[in-house]
Design brief:
The complex is a heterodimer of chains A (113) and B (114). With 113 residues, chain A is an all-beta fold. Helix content of chain A is 0%, strand content 58%. In chain B, strands 2, 4, 5, 6, 9, 10 and 11 form a 7-stranded mixed sheet that branches. Classes of the chains: A mainly beta (113), B mainly beta (114).
Chain lengths: 113, 114
């Protein structure tokens, strides 16, 4: 059973535009929601993470929006740059148990110059 | 920041041989490390949880005799793919719980079995 559903599968954005990637989950017990960025041939790198006690978290051009009632969270990349072109994964997990940590299917972002 | 080093980054081996992949936490101690497998254009699938000083915990469907995990110290976990076959070709990634909240991933190992 897929614990988190991610969309879209791929995304093309013009330089300077806003990239939006969405994830939805079912299990309300999850309390840790990170986003990872992965470049080809490299391991994922933590980009930003949020807990359910806040509705939004911003770090530079990256913002997570969290809707607890809808069980959805999204990543917004403002002023997207060609260097942001990568695959992005959302994940859901439990803050008390990293053994149970589930990744979304990934979104390949292509930012055109 | 927390750094996890994974070695080798690429390896090609003949079918039937064994390959060892190392995962090291460089600037922190990690009692628990995780091993993932990633197929092309797919997400990461957790294979096993490596615990320092004890046996690894394998996810359902992962053959523990084929994917041997050793976590001999607080900074090193190894994954050995035994009697490798072409279907074992994949991208293997380790991660560890760093001092900052969340996983720190290694750079991955591309295994090709010919």
């Amino acid at each position: 059973q897929q614990q988190v559903k991610q969309s879209p599968q791929s995304l093309i954005v013009q330089k300077g535009g806003i990239s939006i990637i969405n994830c939805a989950y079912e299990n309300t017990a999850f309390d840790y929601f990170p986003w990872y960025q992965q470049f080809p041939g490299k391991g994922p790198a933590l980009l930003i993470a949020i807990r359910p006690d806040v509705s939004e978290k911003k770090e530079g051009r990256f913002t997570i929006s969290f809707n607890k009632s809808a069980k959805q969270f999204s990543l917004h990349i403002m002023d997207s740059q060609p260097g942001d072109s990568a695959t992005y994964f959302c994940a859901v997990g439990y803050s008390y148990n990293f053994n149970k940590f589930y990744f979304g299917s990934g979104t390949k972002l292509n930012v055109k110059p | 920041g927390a750094v996890v080093s994974q070695h080798p980054s690429r390896v090609i081996c003949k079918s039937g041989t064994s390959v060892k992949i190392e995962c090291r936490s460089l600037d922190f101690q990690a009692t628990t490390m995780f091993w993932y497998r990633q197929f092309p254009k797919q997400s990461l699938m957790l294979m096993a949880t490596s615990n320092e000083g004890s046996k690894a915990t394998y996810e359902q469907g992962v053959e523990k005799d084929k994917f041997l995990i050793n976590h001999a110290s607080l900074t090193l976990s190894t994954l050995t793919v035994t009697s490798a076959h072409p279907e074992d070709s994949s991208f293997y990634i380790c991660s560890a719980e760093g001092p900052n909240y969340g996983y720190t991933f290694g750079s991955g190992t591309r295994l090709t079995v010919v």
